[in-house]
Design a protein that fits this description.
With 236 residues, this protein is of the alpha/beta class. 37% of the residues lie in helices and 18% in strands. The chain is built from nine helices and eight strands. An eight-stranded parallel barrel has the order 1-2-3-4-5-6-7-8, surrounded by five helices. Helix 5 (109-118) links the parallel strand 4 (98-102) and strand 5. Bound molecules: D-xylitol-5-phosphate (DX5) and zinc ion. D-xylitol-5-phosphate is lined by residues 20, 22-23, 45, 47, 78, 151, 153-154, 156-158, 187-190, 207-211.
Length: 236
């Protein structure tokens, strides 16, 4: 058995597909989410951007609230905003299930993560491509999810950065060494090909926008292809 296969078989948790609505048709958002849910999405990923931490401006609590009415799937809210703490109550109220903050966005990461959990939500921490894994080393007990960005955040449809795979491996080792059950999420340029590579490196939550909502075989086809790509190889 190769080292890769044994790593994937050892993973106690099954892969999660988080469908990023950033590439959905916003004129038909509820329908697109329902098709994704029926097609096998596990979570709905909502990219909140403020035009400061990242160059783009996207959505806020009103969109989360609309998504909440469209599905019972967990809403995985990725906060690409400066000073995210001020927004936690509004996103909790809107129906978010998890909030992920960037280490680059706050001077008080530990306090921010505790505040998210204090609201009864799952807490995630994200690192940009230029940020090393050590940036999350002191908060591993405070998180339910670590997000390793595989593009520089800001837009859907960017090319996957292969150099990030080594970082996924290093974060996987950190989580395993700490005995952490936190999920390891990858986000940016994930499709069947890069999804396989990320899974082999130890990721277990796969965010995709283009590869799901703009897949040539439709939303369900995109989810099927991605699922197949990230499923652990059968044991034996
Ligand atoms: C990028 C966002 C991603 C984005 C992914 O800043 O955080 O979630 O929607 O889009 P794709 O999968 O198209 O790269
Ligand atoms: Zn995202």
């Amino acid at each position: 058995m190769s080292a890769t296969v044994s790593l994937r078989v050892q993973m106690a948790t099954s892969p999660i597909l988080s469908a990023s609505i950033l590439a959905a048709d916003f004129a038909r958002l509820g329908d697109e989410i329902r098709v994704a849910a029926e097609g096998g999405a596990d979570w709905i990923h909502i990219d909140v951007m403020d035009g400061h931490l990242v160059p783009n401006l996207t959505m806020g609590p009103v969109i989360v609230e609309a998504c909440r009415r469209a599905t019972t799937l967990p809403l995985d809210v990725h906060l690409m905003v400066e000073r995210p703490e001020a927004l936690f109550p509004a996103f909790a109220e809107a129906g978010a299930d998890s909030l992920t903050v960037h280490v680059e966005a706050t001077a008080h990461l530990h306090r921010a993560l505790q505040a998210i959990r204090g609201l009864g939500l799952r807490a995630g921490v994200a690192i940009n491509p230029a940020t090393p894994p050590v940036a999350v080393a002191e908060v591993l007990n405070e998180v339910d999810l670590v997000l390793v960005m595989t593009v520089n955040p800001g837009y859907s449809g960017q090319a996957f950065l292969p150099a990030c795979l080594d970082k996924v491996r290093r974060v996987r080792h950190m989580l395993d060494a700490a005995g952490s059950a936190a999920r390891l999420q990858v986000d940016g340029g994930i499709d069947a090909n890069t999804g396989t590579q990320a899974a082999e490196s130890g990721a277990d939550v796969f965010v995709a926008a283009q590869a799901i909502f703009r897949h040539p075989d439709g939303i369900a086809g995109g989810l099927r292809a991605l699922r197949q790509a990230v499923e652990p190889a059968p044991a034996g």
